[in-house]
Design goal:
The complex is a heterotrimer of chains A (287), B (365) and C (360). Chain B is an alpha+beta fold and 365 residues long. Chain B contains 10 helices and 21 strands. In chain B, α3 crosses α4 and α3 packs parallel to α5. Chain C has 8 helices and 20 strands. The chains are: A mainly alpha (287), B alpha+beta (365), C alpha+beta (360).
C-alpha cells in the first residue's frame, strides 16, 4: 500500500525538528567542535586538529575499557536473548495467569535505574543483604567490592534481572502473532518440540528478535547508572565500562577536548556495530 | 484407512451446558466409511469446524465417542490417529525448501532417506510441484503453498484420513477450479478417506460422493449430491444446496391439496392423504428453480405470475416472479425467450416437495 | 455526478500497477471490476477514491479535474474485504460517524441512521458492538456506514469474499436493490466472473493493470472483444482451439474438419483461435452440422444439478458444463458434439473476429 505523498507534512515535522536540533544536533556539533580544540576555560582555547583523536585511540585505559565493554555486552546478549525467549515460551498464553505474568515481568523494567543499582548493592552485602548473607552462611566467599570475579558476576546478574523482561515481553508478543494452525500442523506432522521451535517459532520471531538484539546491544553498550551505583567501577577499574571512563574524563577531569573526541568515537562504534547486526539479520531474510 | 464412527457425539464449549444452545454439536450418530470422499457443508457457526476438529483429534468431545475401526480414540491426538489436516490458509515451514517440507513428516517418523526421496518425488509428480522442489517455501504463491500443505498429508503411507478445512478459501477462482480437479484425482488415485469442510455448495458437490449438511450443530441430511438436490429432507437443505436455493412457499392444507393466496394446488394422492395428520404443523411446499416451468401458455395447472426481474448469468437466466404475493425464482436456459410482464408457471408433481415443520413429507408407498 | 479516468497510469517502485486506463462511469450506474488478484483492481479503486495520485493521467468528477484532490475533499465511501468497523463504538455510532464528521444535526442523524439500518436489515442491532455480531452483520454495518452519507462514489473492494456462499448470494441481491434508486456510482471489485454476472450493471475486465474490455456486463460476456476477455470472464474457463479457415472448411489441428457454414463464411482465410463455451458442447448433436469429437473422460465433477465433464483426446482437452447428473468413469470413451454456430472466432492477434449470433 503506498501512502499519499503530501509535502505539507514537513511543516508538522518542523517543531520536532527544531527540538531535536536544539537538544541533540547542536550539542553534537558542539562536541565535534570541542573535539578538535584544547580547552582550558571558556575563553582560552586552541585548535589542535586530530590530536585528541590520536591520543584517545592510543590510550591504554580506553582500550581496556573498550574490551571490558565488548565482553560485557557480549555476555549480556548471550544470556538475555536465549533466556528471554525461554521465558516467553514458558509464559501462559491465556487466562488470568497470563495477565499476572505480564505484570510481574514488567516490574523490573519500571524501576529507576539507580534504584536497581542500589537494590543489588544492598542485596549483595554480607551484613544486611539477603544474597550476601545467605552465601556467607553457605560458606561461599562472596564480596563484590573487593573481588573482581564477584563484581562482574553481580553486575551481569543485575543486568539480566533488570532487562531480560524486555526480551521476554517482545518475544511473547511475537509468539502470540503465530496462528494456531501452524502448531496444529506441526503436531500432525509429528514434529518434536525442538523442530517446532526451530522451524515455526524462531523464523516467525525474526523481526522481534532483531529489535530485541539491537535494543539490548545499544543499551548495554551505553550502560552507566547501574554498575556505577553498584560497584563504582571497582574493584579498581574491573567494572569500569566505556561510559564511566568517558564521564571521568569529561566531568571529573574537565578535559573537554579529549572527552568530546571520545564521545564521537563511542557514538561511531555503536553505530557501526548496530549497522552490522541489522544488515546481518535482515540480509538473511532476503535470501 | 479407517472407518470413522461417531456415537452419541455431542460437544459443548462450556463446562456446564444448560440447554441446546450451549452445544456446538448436538447429539449425533454417524459413520464415515473407509475410502470415501465426504463433504461437511454448512453456514458459518453451524459446528462443522468443531466436528472436523473432533474427528481429527485437535478437540476432545465433551460427550460421546469417536471410533476409528471400532477403536475408541476420543483422547488420542491427531498424530496418534494418523490424521492429516489441511487448513484454511496454507501452512508451510517457511525456512525449508518444498522438498524438505514434503519430507518433514516422513523424516520425523524416522523413515530411511531413500524412501523419503522416492515418496516425495511421487507426490510432487501428482501435485505438479516438481519444478518447485528446490525453492524456499515462503516464496511460493498461495495455491502452490496449499498444494505443499496437501502434499504433506499425502506423503505418509499410514494416513487414516485427510481432513480439509475450507482449503480453497484463499485461492483465486480460476485456480480453485484446477485444485478441485486435482483433489478429485488424488482421491481416485489414492483412495484415502477424505473429509472436506466448506460453506460452498458447489465445491462440496463436485468433490464429495456424499455430503453431510450441517445446521445448528446437527447433520440434517447425509446423501449424495443428487439426493440433496432432488429430495432435500429438510427445508434448510433445500435452501442451502443449489444456486439459487429452493423456492419455499408457506401453505395451508385444503381438500386434497394446498393453498396459498388465491391459488389452490392439488397434490398427488400419496401426499394428499397425509394432510389431515399434519393439521397441527407448519406446511411449506418447495420446488427448485431448475424445475419450475415457465411459459407463455397456461397449459395444464398453470398459475399466472408477474415477472419482476431477470438476471443474465451467461449460461442461464434467473427470472424472479411474483406468484400470489410470493417471490419465486425460475431458471431459464440461455436461449429461452424471457417473458416481459407475466408468465404461466407450473410445478411438476415429480419435483414438488411438501414439508411439515421443515421436514420432508415422504409419500407412503 | 459522473466519473471519468483519462489515461491514468500508476507506477510504484518501477512497477506498472495501472497501465493507461481510461474509463467513464455514469451517475446511478453499478460497475463491476473483474480481474485476478494483483490485476490492479484495488489500485484502480484507490485512484478513483483519491487515496493515491496517478503517476500520469487525470481523474475527473462531473467534468472537473480532481486528480490532486485528496480523498477527504471528495465525496467517496469505501467498503473493504475485512469487516472494518470502529470496535469500541456501537453499530449506531459506527453508522453515524461520517454524519457527525460532516456536522449534521442530531435529528437528521437519527433519521438517516434509522433508514440506512433498515435498508440493510440491521436495525435490531443498533445498540450492539460490531464484534458481537456475525460476519455478515458486521459487513452490513460497514456498508451502512458507507451508504449513510450518500456519497457520489461508493467503492466495494471484494466485500463479500469472507462470507458464506449463501450469505453472499443474499447480499449481492440486496446490493443491487440498494443501488437501483440511488444516483451514486457504485464500483465493485471481484475475482469471480459468476459474481459479476449475478450483479449485472456494467463490467470492466482488468488484467495486469490494463483495461481489457468495458461495457454492459451482458455485452462483455456475450461479445468478448479479445481472447483474454473471454478467458478472464468465464467460469468454467472457455475452451480454446487453434484452427484454420480454408476455402470451404474449418479445420482444427489438421484432424477435425467441418464445412464452412454461413456464419463463418465472411471471414478471411487464415489461422484463428476458436472458442466454445463449456455449456454449449453437448452429448447429443443439437444440429445437423455439429462437429463430433471422440475422446476419453478425464474426470466427471458432479454437483447435484450439473456435471462438469473433462474430456480429452490426443489433440485437445475440453471442459463441458452439462445440466443434470452424468456419471462417467475415468477413461471411459465418449463422443461430444460442438455446435459450429456457437463458435467464437479470434484472429491471430487475439481480437474477436466473429461471435455467435444470439436469439432473444
Amino acid at each position: 500500500m503506498t501512502k499519499t505523498h503530501d509535502n505539507r507534512a514537513w511543516w508538522l515535522v518542523l517543531p520536532v525538528f527544531l527540538l531535536v536540533a536544539f537538544s541533540a544536533i547542536l550539542p553534537m556539533m558542539t562536541v565535534v567542535n570541542y573535539s578538535v580544540q584544547d580547552i582550558f576555560d571558556s575563553s582560552t582555547r586552541f585548535f589542535v586538529g586530530a590530536d585528541w583523536y590520536r591520543q584517545i585511540l592510543n590510550d591504554p585505559r580506553l582500550h581496556d575499557s573498550l574490551l571490558r565493554q565488548f565482553i560485557f555486552s557480549g555476555c549480556v546478549l548471550l544470556i538475555e536473548i536465549p533466556l528471554g525467549i525461554a521465558v516467553a515460551l514458558a509464559m501462559p498464553t491465556r487466562g488470568r495467569w497470563a495477565s499476572a505474568c505480564l505484570i510481574v515481568m514488567a516490574i523490573p523494567l519500571l524501576i529507576p535505574w539507580n534504584v536497581v543499582g542500589t537494590i543489588w548493592q544492598i542485596f549483595g552485602r554480607a551484613d544486611i543483604g539477603l544474597l550476601g548473607y545467605s552465601l556467607r552462611e553457605l560458606g561461599i566467599s562472596y564480596n563484590y567490592a573487593s573481588n573482581t570475579r564477584d563484581a562482574w558476576l553481580t553486575v551481569l546478574v543485575m543486568d539480566v534481572w533488570h532487562w531480560t523482561s524486555l526480551v521476554a515481553l517482545l518475544c511473547y508478543s511475537g509468539l502470540r502473532a503465530i496462528p494456531d494452525a501452524y502448531y496444529q500442523a506441526a503436531r500432525i506432522d509429528r514434529a518434536s518440540a525442538w523442530a517446532v521451535f526451530r522451524y515455526i517459532q524462531l523464523p516467525k520471531l525474526k523481526s522481534v528478535l532483531l529489535i530485541a538484539v539491537m535494543l539490548r546491544f545499544m543499551d548495554s553498550f551505553m550502560i552507566y547508572t547501574e554498575p556505577f551505583v553498584l560497584t563504582g567501577g571497582g574493584p579498581g577499574n574491573a567494572t569500569t565500562f566505556l561510559s564511566q571512563t568517558l564521564t571521568k574524563m569529561a566531568v571529573g577531569q574537565f578535559d573537554l577536548g579529549p572527552a568530546a573526541a571520545f564521545s564521537l568515537i563511542y557514538f561511531l562504534i555503536i553505530l557501526l556495530v548496530s549497522w552490522l547486526f541489522y544488515t546481518a539479520m535482515t540480509h538473511s531474510d532476503q535470501k | 484407512m479407517a472407518e470413522i464412527r461417531l456415537q452419541n457425539l455431542a460437544h459443548s464449549y462450556s463446562s456446564q451446558p444448560q440447554g441446546a444452545t450451549d452445544y456446538a454439536i448436538r447429539e449425533m450418530d454417524h459413520v464415515w466409511e473407509q475410502g470415501g470422499a465426504y463433504a461437511l457443508l454448512g453456514p458459518s457457526g453451524c459446528g462443522k469446524s468443531t466436528l472436523l476438529n473432533i474427528i481429527s483429534g485437535l478437540l476432545s468431545p465433551s460427550e460421546g465417542d469417536v471410533l476409528f475401526d471400532t477403536r475408541k480414540v476420543n483422547t488420542l491426538s491427531p498424530e496418534q490417529r494418523n490424521i492429516a489436516q489441511v487448513f484454511q490458509f496454507p501452512v508451510v515451514y517457511d525456512t525449508m525448501t518444498v522438498f524438505d517440507n514434503l519430507a518433514f513428516p516422513l523424516r520425523n517418523q524416522g523413515v530411511a532417506e531413500s524412501r523419503v526421496a522416492s515418496k516425495v518425488h511421487e507426490i510432487a509428480e501428482v501435485l505438479d510441484l516438481h519444478p518447485l522442489l528446490k525453492r524456499k517455501a515462503h516464496n511460493l504463491t498461495a495455491d502452490e503453498k496449499q498444494k505443499v500443505s496437501m502434499g504433506r498429508g499425502l506423503v505418509r503411507d499410514d494416513v487414516s484420513a485427510i481432513l480439509f478445512d475450507e482449503p480453497l478459501t484463499v485461492i483465486d477462482p480460476h485456480l480453485k477450479w484446477k485444485l478441485r480437479r486435482k483433489l478429485k484425482q488424488i482421491h481416485e488415485q489414492f483412495n484415502i478417506t477424505m473429509i472436506y469442510v466448506t460453506h460452498d455448495q458447489l465445491e462440496a458437490s463436485t468433490f464429495a460422493d456424499k455430503i453431510a449438511v450441517m445446521y445448528g450443530g446437527q447433520i440434517v441430511q447425509f446423501g449424495t449430491p443428487r439426493e440433496l438436490f432432488e429430495r432435500p429432507q429438510h427445508t434448510f437443505v433445500g435452501y442451502f444446496v443449489g444456486s439459487p436455493g429452493m423456492n419455499l412457499i408457506e401453505v395451508q392444507a385444503r381438500e386434497g391439496g394446498v393453498t396459498f393466496g388465491d391459488q389452490h394446488l392439488p397434490l398427488p394422492a400419496a401426499l394428499a392423504e397425509q394432510l389431515p395428520g399434519l393439521a397441527a404443523k407448519r406446511l411449506h411446499i418447495g420446488i427448485r428453480p431448475e424445475f419450475v416451468q415457465v411459459s407463455d401458455e397456461p397449459g395444464v395447472g398453470g398459475m399466472l405470475a408477474e415477472a419482476v426481474r431477470v438476471e443474465d448469468l451467461g449460461t442461464y437466466k434467473i427470472i424472479t416472479l411474483r406468484l400470489q404475493g410470493h417471490l419465486i425464482k425460475a431458471r431459464l436456459p440461455e436461449d429461452q425467450a424471457v417473458p416481459k410482464y407475466e408468465a404461466w408457471v407450473g410445478f411438476p408433481a415429480q419435483w414438488l416437495m411438501l414439508y411439515a415443520d421443515d421436514r420432508l413429507v415422504e409419500a407412503q408407498p | 455526478m459522473s466519473l471519468t479516468l483519462e489515461h491514468v497510469t500508476k507506477t510504484v517502485d518501477g512497477q506498472l500497477h495501472i497501465d493507461d486506463a481510461s474509463l467513464n462511469f455514469e451517475p446511478g450506474s453499478f460497475n463491476v471490476l473483474i480481474g485476478r488478484t494483483l490485476s490492479g483492481k484495488t489500485s484502480l479503486m484507490r485512484l478513483m477514491a483519491g487515496l493515491d495520485k496517478p503517476t500520469r493521467g487525470r481523474v475527473l468528477m462531473n467534468g472537473a479535474d480532481v486528480t490532486g484532490v485528496p480523498v477527504r475533499k471528495r465525496n467517496v465511501s469505501m467498503v473493504y474485504q475485512q469487516f472494518i468497523n470502529y470496535p469500541t463504538l456501537t453499530v449506531y455510532e459506527n453508522i453515524a460517524s461520517p454524519l457527525r464528521q460532516a456536522g449534521v444535526g442530531k435529528a437528521d442523524i437519527e433519521r438517516k441512521v434509522g433508514e440506512t439500518a433498515e435498508m440493510l436489515h440491521i436495525e435490531a442491532f443498533l445498540q450492539k458492538h460490531p464484534l458481537e455480531l456475525s460476519g455478515g452483520q458486521q459487513q452490513r454495518t460497514a456498508m451502512a456506514r458507507a451508504l449513510v452519507k450518500d456519497a457520489d462514489l461508493v467503492l466495494f473492494d471484494e466485500p463479500l469474499v469472507n462470507l458464506d456462499y449463501k450469505l453472499r448470494e443474499e447480499l449481492r441481491q440486496e446490493m443491487r436493490e440498494l443501488f437501483k434508486t440511488r444516483r451514486s456510482i457504485a464500483v465493485y471489485a471481484t475475482t469471480e466472473p459468476n459474481e459479476a454476472l449475478a450483479l449485472g450493471g456494467n463490467a470492466t475486465i482488468l488484467h495486469e493493470g490494463r483495461v481489457i474490455q468495458s461495457g454492459p456486463t451482458s455485452a462483455v460476456y456475450h461479445r468478448p472483444s479479445q481472447v483474454l476477455s473471454a478467458e478472464l470472464f468465464s467460469e468454467p474457463p472457455i475452451n480454446l482451439l487453434p484452427g484454420r479457415i480454408a476455402a470451404n472448411e474449418v479445420s482444427f489441428q489438421d484432424c477435425m474438419h467441418f464445412p464452412l457454414n454461413a456464419d463463418l463464411s465472411g471471414l478471411d482465410k487464415g489461422e484463428y483461435r476458436f472458442g466454445i463455451r463449456p455449456s454449449h458442447i453437448g452429448l447429443v448433436p443439437s444440429n445437423d452440422d455439429d462437429l463430433e469429437v471422440s475422446g476419453l473422460v478425464e474426470l466427471a465433477e458432479i454437483s447435484g444439478s450439473e456435471t462438469f465433464l473433462h474430456v480429452r483426446n490426443e489433440h485437445l482437452s475440453l471442459v463441458l458444463h452439462l445440466q443434470g447428473v452424468h456419471d462417467y468413469h475415468v477413461d471411459s470413451p465418449i463422443r461430444v458434439y460442438i455446435p459450429t454456430h456457437k463458435l467464437f472466432v479470434f484472429d491471430a492477434s487475439g481480437r474477436l473476429a466473429q461471435a455467435p449470433a444470439r436469439r432473444a
